[in-house]
Input
Amino acid sequence: LNVPFSNYETGMTASIPPSTSLLLVSADTAVRQHFQKALRMIHNNRPVVAFVYDEGQLAVTDNTYRDSLRNASEVCCLPVPMYILSGSAPPKSIPAMATIFGLAKPYIEIRNCTDRPELEYILEEERPKYEIKNRLTNLIVSARSTLQSHERILIFVQKVDYGIELARHFQCGFYSGDKTVTPDRAKTYNDWLNGIYNILIGTSALLAGNDYLHVQYVFFASTPADATGFLQGAGRGGRDHIPSKVIILPHKRSGNSWFAKGEDHAGSTFIASLCANNPPLCLRWSLCNFADG
Output
């Protein structure tokens, strides 16, 4: 959009440049005193007009291990409007999100249909984890045979060790949030963008923010951890509006180990039941029913 912006890096203590029109800051830094002090100082001379919080659903789906998400209400430290964005928050989670962000009633909710008609959802039969790799290999061989030079493949995994194993097997990059595993994430991602390899394997760290237009195949190599993450990952496909495939290779689970405990805003139980095909349901209808109500 060619909008000039400044990036407030983690660990910075310097003041915010007065010429700043758009300021980017992480959720972790946004609740820290040194940042909020700097923001109030610039507000006195150049008023802040709004806060925008992207991926707002994380405040209710991932707040068990990040203090900044539990303290999301502290982000809006000035008396200005706050806009919370999410492409995967189900209607049932909106009241909880409003509470954790400290929104005053009445707040305004604006929704759009999340259906992506260009995506074809394919659910494979459940397999033991050791069989998923063989099946995935066959599918990748078939996909690569028709892949054009600008088209790409994404594979999502739940475990870092498994991602490393698959990256070695397919001779491609592995994108993880752990810097000891992926020390140069920018290079790993750009190598994939530039076609050095046409497959990129990633953990949940890759679910959001990847807007490459020509992702032709999205694979989930095991049952997705939750529905909101699945919708984000699946949404990486077909952003050029060309029909693309989202293929789930679920793993077999024993007993009721997949039932979520407590309020299931992320949809862990829902996606596990859907992938178990119990009861058999239309994938598109089920996903839209979860995401849109």
